[in-house]
Specification:
There is one protein chain. It contains eight helices and seven strands. With 176 residues, the protein is of the alpha/beta class. The protein has one domain: Vaccinia Virus protein VP39 (Rossmann fold, 3-Layer(aba) Sandwich). Strand 6 and strand 7 form a beta hairpin. The radius of gyration is 15 Å and the shape is globular.
């Protein structure tokens, strides 16, 4: 069963709660996006849920669309007025983007889809905002260290920013 069917748009409750780790993490992401992306940029939020980040990016002048594997999240996101897609990521993403966001998603990608997913995301944009928990996620299929997350991008990418606050690793990478 979908966590969105059970809990609805729960990200909104977390974001509205002062000092919630999710809220603080999202504020960090938005600050970095605001600094690194000019107004009018296009972004893809991979694993967007119902689209909270899409809305917050729109508030700072960035056009964003989302993709999620959870059909209930996509349904909820569309009902909230967000452009959210479902299906194989390669068939959905045909446009160029200035940035891709993959926040709290990579730890959930199945082993047999992992490398293809990562390769596709890295091909979408020269700028990637990635975040994974810095502790074991009981719903995740893999754990990451900061080093393994950076290694995922390979030698052709450089790290613009990394931090481990708020129980997540946030790494902003740019194609060299």
């Amino acid at each position: 069963m979908s966590k969105y069917r059970e809990r609805g748009a729960y990200h909104r409750v977390l974001f509205a709660t002062p000092n919630d780790p999710y809220r603080l993490h999202m504020l960090d992401v938005l600050e970095k996006a605001n600094r690194l992306l000019p107004r009018g940029s296009r972004a893809l939020d991979f694993g967007c849920g119902e689209g909270l980040l899409i809305e917050k990016l729109r508030d700072i002048g960035i056009t964003a669309i989302g993709w999620d594997a959870d059909r209930e999240a996509v349904r909820l996101g569309r009902r909230l007025g967000n452009e959210v897609w479902h299906g194989r990521i390669r068939s959905v993403v045909v446009d160029a983007f200035n940035a891709v966001f993959v926040l709290d998603v990579l730890e959930h990608v199945a082993e047999d889809e992992f490398q293809e997913t990562v390769d596709t995301l890295l091909a979408i944009s020269p700028l990637v905002f990635a975040a994974v928990p810095d502790r074991h996620d009981r719903h995740g299929v893999r754990d990451f260290t900061m080093e393994s997350l950076k290694a995922l991008f390979g030698d052709g990418w450089e790290c613009l920013h990394s931090e481990t606050r708020h129980a997540r690793h946030l790494v902003v990478m740019r194609l060299k």
